[in-house]
Amino acid sequence: MPQSLANIAVHLVFSTKDRQPFLANDGLRAEVHNQLGGASKTLDCAPLIAGGVEDHVHVLVRMSRTITVSDWVKELKRVTSIWIKARDPKLGEFQWQAGYGAFSVSQSEITRVKAYIANQAEHHRERDFKEEFRLLLERHRIEFDERYVWD
User: Fold this and answer.
1) DSSP 8-state class, residue 108
2) pTM of the prediction?
3) What residue segments make up the domains of the chain, in order of their start?
4) Please, where are the H alpha helices in the chain?
5) Rounded Cα gap, residues 114 and 149, in angstroms
6) Rama region for 106: left / alpha / beta (φ>0; ψ in -120 to 50; rest)
7) First-residue to last-residue Cα distance in the chain
8) Which residues 6+ apart lie within 8 Å of 147 measured at CB?
9) How does pLDDT run across 50-87, given as a tens digit for each residue?
10) Which CATH fold topology does 9-108+116-141 show?
11) In terms of Cα–Cα distance, which of 102, 77, 103, 99 is closest to 149?
12) Could you tell me which residues are beta bridge partners of residue 96?
């Protein structure tokens, strides 16, 4: 086959360093979500939705065939961290956590995952980020050691 074709959806989740509520301001949070989508698009990863709450973000994209997940995440964090610090000098200490969770999403689940991301504020009335992230890891059968998940 002379052509390479792919349709791979990825649900990305990562938090602020030490889950600090740097994104508590609704306006800033919405702008960060837009920046995450824009940076993904620049990397040829089609953004489907970005969302989250004050201490973490979720991004759902269709991955490009030409970039690895780790390179995509590294660039998202780099670009948005620079943007956040430049936007508000009070956020000069802003950092993302070092790690992330990336979860494959089947085409039949795209609508459900988009709704889940869109309703983050509602979900977090019942559970915090750590509980949510543990559930995602377990649901996707990803083995993990608690000592190395949280930073």
Assistant:
1) G
2) 0.93
3) 9-108+116-141
4) 26-42, 69-87, 110-118, 120-123, 129-139
5) 24
6) beta
7) 44
8) none
9) 999 999 999 999 999 999 999 999 999 999 999 999 99
10) Alpha-Beta Plaits (3.30.70)
11) 99
12) 16
